[in-house]
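Risk register update: the risk of archive-format incompatibility is retired. Evidence:
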Amino acid sequence: GIRSLAIVPVGLSAHRQGLTRLDPVTPALAGETIDAVHHWQEVALQQMDDRFVYLSDEFYLLADRPFPPVENYDEFWQIDNAIGLTPRLRESWHDDLESRRNEGTMPRRPITVLTGELAARAWERELQPMLAGFELPPVEVVPVRNEFYGNSVTVAGLLSGSDLRRALLQLPAEPHRTIILSPRVWNADDLTLDGMTLEELAADQPHEVLVGEEDAFVDFWADLG
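Archived output:
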């Protein structure tokens, strides 16, 4: 009854007093895990219809290893947990930009992306080089340090409103920016982990703050005018 299995590095917050010691995943351990899981995937592929077990993007970014081809994620069974999100977005955004270039409807507005430190690394290594192949306005990526849970927590989906607001207030007032936040920051009630609304997060500062898209990011960006 199990469709797929995801493997993710242990996330260690700064609030672990009195808890069992757990060590963070190092780049070396991330590389060893990649090698082991790729072997298990080949075994699964011989016995099943797909690879069954999938590694989170953190492993490839921590180890500075290339991502597998997108077809190695099969049907992206774990995409809701952001497994394979980076290579999928890289490929889908590229295709969307190709289409828009042919149509003459490319994005025209510079943007600033506030995101977690891990996602900022993915932008730098995977997404920005892809975007550089198109004539696009600048994309500024600002990594946001997680003070709410601790700086070892680096994923965008665990950023608090207070951390995002701190990073937002640290930006220079000029030039005026269009700030894009990850949709993963918000829960079903449109609140951050610490109960902040978008209006509260963006209050009393000069920049426009918007919640972006993931798969439809290129369309979202182009529609900004």
